[in-house]
Amino acid sequence: MDAATRSRVGLLCDQLSRWPSLREIIREGGAGPELDDLLALLAGPAEPAPRRMGELVDAVERSCARQGLAGWTSREGVPLPGVPTLPPGMTGTAGVAGWTCPFSRCDRVVTPDESPRPPECAAAHGRDARMKPYRPVTS
Q1: Helices 32-43 and 3-18: angle between axes, nearest 10 degrees
Q2: Secondary structure of residue 109 in the 3-state scheme
Q3: Could you count the other beta carbons within 10 Å of the beta carbon of residue 42?
Q4: Residue 74, exposed/middle/buried by CB under 10 A (0-12, 13-18, 19+)?
């Protein structure tokens, strides 16, 4: 998946986890099936096809626009698959420094000051939905 799509997926997952009502807004905008497909692909065992992911994210974004919600913005610092990252400037300390996508397919990061316990991943809805902890290596 390209960096721009990963970023858009990360923003969507973040918003879905923070605002459960967003799912209904997307459905009311006509993109319920696309949202379901997107989340299933994210949580699936295979790496999703980049083109299909872009199409699904575009459909969800159009749905939100029809409901009067602003489009997605971009973020920098997309993690490599399997390598969780933290925001620039955050230093490693002992213990959990934050949580990242359990599938390593988006760039969402949640820090302990945002959530005192592991937040949920929108794509893992219905399964073990917790984001994975990030524990930096300390010297």
Answers
A1: 110
A2: strand
A3: 23
A4: exposed
The residue-averaged pLDDT of 63-73 equals 65
Residue 29: is its pLDDT beyond 80? yes
Residue 81 pLDDT exceeds 80: no
**What phi and psi values does residue 129 have, to the nearest 5 degrees?**
-90, 5
State how far the Cα of 100 lies from the Cα of 102, in Å rounded to an integer.
6
Whether 85 contacts 17, CB under 8 Å: no
C-alpha distance from residue 42 to each of 10, 28, 112, 114, 131 (Å): 11, 22, 24, 23, 13
Nearest to 96 by CA among 139, 121, 122, 132: 132
**pTM listed for this prediction:** 0.58
- How is residue 112 written in tokens? 């302990």
Average pLDDT over residues 24-52: 92
Q: Which residue in 83, 89, 99 sits closest to 132, CA to CA? A: 99
